[in-house]
Design goal:
The protein has 74 residues and is mainly alpha-helical. The chain has one domain. Helices cover 55% and strands 8% of the residues. The protein contains four helices and two strands. It has a two-stranded parallel sheet. The protein is globular. The two termini are 21 Å apart.
């Protein structure tokens, strides 16, 4: 089994909140970023809006995300 994609804790919380809300299809990264902002998760919005994170997000959608531990770099 592949290792889950590690992302910052606050980003993880935002993604989980959007998923739990059911407001959008999680494959639509742009809308996930939008709703993360609506749900007041600015760190998630910023991370999701960064094109450099697109492949990590796509991979995480299929194998899962894991929040980074304190002191761990992304």
């Amino acid at each position: 089994m592949e290792e889950k994609v590690k992302i910052p804790q606050k980003v993880y919380e935002g993604i989980v909140a959007v998923r739990a809300s059911g407001l959008t299809n999680m494959l639509d990264m742009g809308m996930v970023a939008h709703y993360a902002g609506e749900l007041e998760f600015p760190d998630a919005t910023s991370w999701l809006s960064d094109i450099n994170n697109k492949s990590r997000y796509s991979e995480g959608i299929f194998i899962g995300f894991e929040p980074e531990e304190d002191g761990e770099k992304e």
